[in-house]
Design goal:
mainly alpha, elongated, binds protoporphyrin IX containing FE
């Protein structure tokens, strides 16, 4: 039924908007504003952790829904390995899936850096400045990688859409 396909595509799009739009908002709007609000790096990191945790409450379910609806969208294709390899649509789908796997790995490392014990150390101001600096650099690089991979996934979605 085509209405069912449209609804699944709609849910896929809403989740993609939340996931990609939210990450870009944090990087382009929130982080620069936060920089003007306090010069203390420790305080900024604390606020960022809180914002990240709050965003994850909607971002993680969105990513899970993207995977479920994405697999549903493509299940007929995925069950035909010869089509996956011989058509450009299939090739784009394979690249998209590889990028999604890379995204999951990078995102998991990104959020696991801020384990409970590390978060408590930062919040109780027990962490030395140089350690905070290092941690911050890692978090920023992995956060940027998450956004870049997500945008690359959108390009694969656009290529799938054109049916080249
Ligand atoms: C971060 C994860 C993902 C993002 C941001 C994303 C984003 C998008 C967007 C924006 C579209 C275009 C909407 C449309 O034309 O229907 C789309 C379509 C699609 N996505 Fe995803 N997607 C993700 C994950 C997945 C996964 C894991 C799969 C499959 C295993 C998948 C399979 C598809 C398929 C088959 C389409 C329809 C393309 C077409 O034939 O028009 N997506 N995706």
């Amino acid at each position: 039924m085509s209405l069912e396909i449209a609804i699944i595509a709609w849910i896929h799009l809403i989740s993609a908007s939340i996931w990609v739009g939210g990450s870009i908002f944090i990087g382009i709007v929130f982080v620069p504003v936060l920089k003007t609000m306090t010069t203390s790096m420790e305080e900024r990191l604390q606020i960022m952790i809180k914002v990240g945790k709050r965003f994850n409450k909607i971002a993680v379910p969105s990513l899970i829904i993207l995977i479920i609806t994405g697999v549903y969208n493509s299940h007929q294709f995925l069950s035909k390995p010869e089509l996956l390899l011989s058509s450009s649509y299939g090739n784009f789908l394979i690249i998209k899936i590889i990028l999604v796997i890379a995204l999951i790995i990078v995102f998991t490392v990104h959020i696991r850096i801020i384990r409970k014990d590390i978060e408590e150390k930062i919040l109780s101001k027990e962490m030395p400045e140089n350690q905070i600096q290092k941690l911050r650099k890692k978090i920023i690089i992995l956060g940027e990688a998450t956004v870049v991979i997500s945008i690359a996934i959108l390009f694969m979605a656009a290529l799938l859409d054109t049916g080249i």
